[in-house]
Amino acid sequence: MVRPSSLEAYEIIQKCMYKYWEKGINFFSFNSIIRYSEVSKPSMYRLIGNEDNLKSKTLMMYYKIHLEKNHYYIENATSLFELIRKTLNNIQNKKDGITDINLGLCYFQKTRIIKYTLDKKTKKIINRLDAKFIKSYVRLINKLKKENSINKSINSEYLAQFVYNSVTFFVNTVQNSSSKTEANSMKKSILSTIKIYMK
Question: Which domain, by its residues, includes 43?
Answer without folding.
Answer: 5-61
